[in-house]
Amino acid sequence: MPTNGSSKPLLFLLTGFPGLENVYPWIAISISLMYFVAICGNGTILAIIQAERSLHKPMYLLLAMLAVTDLCLTATTLPSMLRLFWFNSRAVSFGACATQMFFIHSLSCVESGILLAMAFDRFVAISNPLRYPLILTGSRIAKTGLVMLFRSVLFVLPTPILLRLLRYCRVNTLSHSFCVHQDVMNLACSDRRVNIIYGLFAVLSTFGIDSLLVLLSYVVIVKTVLNIASGEECLRALDTCVSHLCAVLIFYIPLIGLTIVHRFGEHASPLVHILMGFTYVLIPPMLNPIVYSVKITQIRQRILKRLQSRTALCAC
Q1: Per DSSP, what are the bridge partners of residue 93?
Q2: pLDDT higher than threshold 70 for residue 201
Q3: CA–CA separation, 178 vs 187, rounded Å?
Q4: 257: Cα separation from own chain's centroid
Q5: Rounded to whole angstroms, how far apart are CA atoms 255 and 280?
Q6: Residue 132, C-beta contacts closer than 8 angstroms, at least 6 positions apart
Q7: H or E element: which one contains 289?
Q8: Secondary element (H or E) of residue 91
């Protein structure tokens, strides 16, 4: 929809799968099932950690924070996706788009910070186990969560404000079924240098630093583990990191892929943009609880115990 050179567009148009409108209901069902898995999985982890006092430890508190973040991210993207695929309703106002964009990027930044805190948790547990209870206390975990939240708001809040200052003169069709900063920025026909520079600064200051520190943590962890004499103890120590490493890969691979597509994929098929977008917002919230439920014995045992008790009650 053209905006006749206005500084703020009246509407943006979300994009689903062009040419497949006749199967949108089936796509909507598939997306709904993925969201159902994400909500049930993260909700179950939260319920178990809240109910079991033995799990009120730094590692599990950080896992609960990750689950809350994934639930919030799910709630942020679910309405626009289901509205698009159930009712083929594409139009979204600038205000709604900017609000969704703010929450998507803020929550992604929070998740990156939590993954960094979890890497530090593993680093302390393996390299300095005797001081672990003294270094990572419940109050410090809570303060870490608040710092990550404040950092996210601080870095992300300017982006919708800067987008509002741009002029939009083209057809305002987005590449995804939700709003992200670079996608909206690419529709502007005025000078975007400030937006590009600030966006790069924000990404490097958050995701860039977090990923480097996570990598550094694992370099030290591997170095510490290799100094362990027993091969069995070495494998046991590394096994405690597997679930976190999976979560890091699940988060950063779609993030990097989406960034590359927006930066260098101008001539790529629209399907590539759409699929990368779905991977970015759907896969981490859906897979994180599955990975942690499978790999962490304490979580898995309590889930099985609850399922067994409910099965017994139904049998009665």
Answers
A1: 11
A2: yes
A3: 14
A4: 14
A5: 6
A6: 124, 125
A7: helix 270-295
A8: strand 91-93
Q: Of all helices (H) and strands (E), which one includes residue 92?
A: strand 91-93
Q: C-alpha angle 188/7/84, rounded to 5°?
A: 65
What is the H or E stretch that residue 177 is in? Answer: none
What's the length of the chain?
316
The contacts of residue 240 (CB under 8 Å, 6+ apart) are 122, 125, 126
DSSP per-residue codes, 183-238: HHHTT--S--HHHHHHHHHHHIIIIIHHHHHHHHHHHHHHHHHHT-S-HHHHHHHH
Q: Are the CB atoms for 58 and 121 separated by under 8 Å?
A: yes
CA distance 63 to 117: 10
pLDDT, tens only, 245-257: 999 999 999 999 8
Element (H, E) at 152: helix 138-156
- Provide DSSP, 17-74: -TT-GGGHHHHHHHHHHHHHHHHHHHHHHHHHHHH-GGG-SHHHHHHHHHHHHHHHHH
Residue recorded with tokens 């003169």: 169
CB under 8 Å to 191, separation ≥6 — which residues? none
Place of tokens 């390299």: 127
Distance of CA 137 to the CA centre of its chain: 25
H/E element holding 301? helix 297-315
CB distance 279 to 178 below 8 Å:
no
Alpha-carbon distance of 311 to 316, in angstroms, equals 9
Q: What are 206's two structure tokens? A: 């958050």
pLDDT tens string 56-111: 899 999 999 999 999 999 999 998 998 999 888 889 999 999 999 999 999 999 99
Q: Are residues 14 and 174 in contact, defined by beta-carbon separation less than 8 angstroms? A: yes
